[in-house]
Amino acid sequence: MQPHPDSVELSWDTDKSKWVVRIESGAEVIRRYCDLAKDANDETIRAAAQKTVQDEGYDVSPASMTIRH
């Protein structure tokens, strides 16, 4: 069973023109970038973020992610 992060936040990084997935678990914060269009729909963003979170060894429900447009 994989651990659950404390929070997962997705936001647009204007400097890199990419979505950034911010995974917070205790004092650890992991940032990973996704190559999606800025106007991608929430479902697409959540699916990409879920894969990124799983690649980092965590389990998360897409509904618990926060998207900041």
Structural account:
- The protein has one domain (7-68).
- 20% of the residues lie in helices and 36% in strands.
- The chain contains 1 helix and 4 strands; from the N terminus they run βββαβ.
- It has a 4-stranded mixed sheet with strand order 3-2-1-4, covered by helices on one side.
- The N and C termini lie far apart (32 Å).
Describe the structure using short key phrases.
about 70 residues; alpha+beta; four-stranded mixed β-sheet; 1 helix
Task: Chart the SSEs and their pairings.
Layout: E1 7-13, E2 18-25, E3 28-34, H1 42-55, E4 66-68
Parallel strand pairs: 1-4
Antiparallel strand pairs: 1-2, 2-3
Brief description of this entry?
The chain is an alpha+beta fold. The chain has one helix spanning 42-55; strands at 7-13, 18-25, 28-34, 66-68.
Provide the spatial order of strands within the biggest beta sheet. Answer: 3-2-1-4
Question: What composes the largest sheet?
Answer: 4 strands, mixed
From the alpha-carbon coordinates, what is the Rg to the nearest angstrom?
Answer: 11 Å
The total number of structural domains is 1
Provide the succession of SSEs.
EEEHE
Q: Report the end-to-end length measured between terminal Cα atoms.
A: 32 Å
SS element count, helices: 1
Shape assignment: globular
Q: Would you count the extended β strands for me?
A: 4
